[in-house]
Amino acid sequence: MELSEMTWPAVATLDRNTPVVFPIAALEQHGRHLPVFTDSMLLGEILTRIKTTPLASKLLFAPLQWLGNSHHHVDFPGTLSASPRLYLDLIRDLAENMMAHGFRRIVFLNGHGGNTGPSQQALFELRQKHRERNDLLLMSLTYWDAADPSAAMPELSQNQMGHACEWETSMILHLASHLVVGNIRDVPEVPFGRGFAPGYRAWTMPDRSKPGHIGSPADATADKGDALFATFAHGVSSLLERVIDWNGSTWDA
């Protein structure tokens, strides 16, 4: 069900246990070879695949929120970003709007790494604000955490999501190859590096990559992209089924 296509009386008739899915992504630089709308395009395709399944009739989808927390990319022209606190408050209010209408199950479906922290914190703050309630399920999921493609796709050179990398470049090659600039076989690898792992070091993209990508775009193919989309869409669908099936009270599901 698409929230954007419904009247308010139609929304009012919905079962308040219907999960509300807020897709959140970004508009930011993706190296010299991918479009700035990459994150939103990729999440949009995953949503398209989910919406062709019977699962879609049991979910209420809000429109994709393309503005993300991308301040770590603002050194590169074309990036649009909301600062972390502003972004956190924005998506927290979106969730609380639907909670005010009586909906109990909220899912932020994320397609941009910079949104991970704010989306989790937004829900954490909401849960504390409504701590007297035991009927709420407030969830955040970044789509590439929903499934591990490396086991089923031994041809992948990367074992994790990068930025404008093998994975993202493959998916754009499958989805909109005409938007890929230049010969990707000529794009040099930018290693992930260790940083200060297992610690976490704050960073901006120029700290890690001058051209703006991280990973191995030269290893991308359209076929890999199709398989990645299928893998991630299946993983996200599995999580959403668990949200639908939650019994309304237990911690585990």
Explain the overall architecture.
The protein has 253 residues and is an alpha/beta fold. The chain has a single domain, classed as Creatininase (Rossmann fold, 3-Layer(aba) Sandwich), CATH 3.40.50. Helices cover 37% and strands 8% of the residues. It has eight helices and four strands. It has helices at residues 8-12, 38-51, 84-100, 116-129, 149-152, 166-176, 205-208, 222-245; strands spanning 20-24, 60-61, 105-110, 137-142. Strands 2-1-3-4 form a four-stranded parallel β-sheet, with helices on both faces. Helix 2 (38-51) crosses helix 6 (166-176), helix 2 (38-51) packs across helix 8 (222-245) and helix 6 (166-176) crosses helix 8 (222-245). It is globular, with a radius of gyration of 19 Å.
Summary tags:
253 residues; alpha/beta; Rossmann fold; four-stranded parallel sheet; 8 helices; 37% helix
| Shape annotation | globular
Strand content: 5-15%
Instruction: Kindly give the count of domains.
Output: 1
* Oligomerization status of the protein chains: single chain
Radius of gyration: 19 Å
Low-confidence stretches at least 5 residues in length (pLDDT < 50)? none
How many H/I helices?
Answer: 8
CATH topology: Rossmann fold
